[in-house]
Amino acid sequence: MSFQNEKRQHPRTKVAFPVIIETAHGFTDGQILDISASGALVLCRNSLKLTKKLYMAIANVPQLDRHLPVGAELIRTNTLGPDSHITSQGLGVRFTNISSEDRKYISALVSEYEHEYEHIE
Prior knowledge:
The protein contains one helix and seven strands; from the N terminus they run ββββββαβ.
């Protein structure tokens, strides 16, 4: 991951939502570790050849009876594990295609979780 000075547009909070990721090269599953109205940090257990654009279906979002569909842009990656054996990939993504209703829902969710989980600056 980049260690540049970041200025986040929206507050983030820690979560643990399962996610299915689709790129031009296939599918993989993972877990969203933190989320904001503008993006997320995703941990993928399986390495997948990544492309700049990807599609995600976020599952088990509280109070939603459906997957949350999101188009996203890959901002950064962080490969975890020794060079000879990659154990997982961390993906920083920016949401590029999300309904305004879903973006508002995520903002409300972050505000609600702020009191239950550690808020990420």
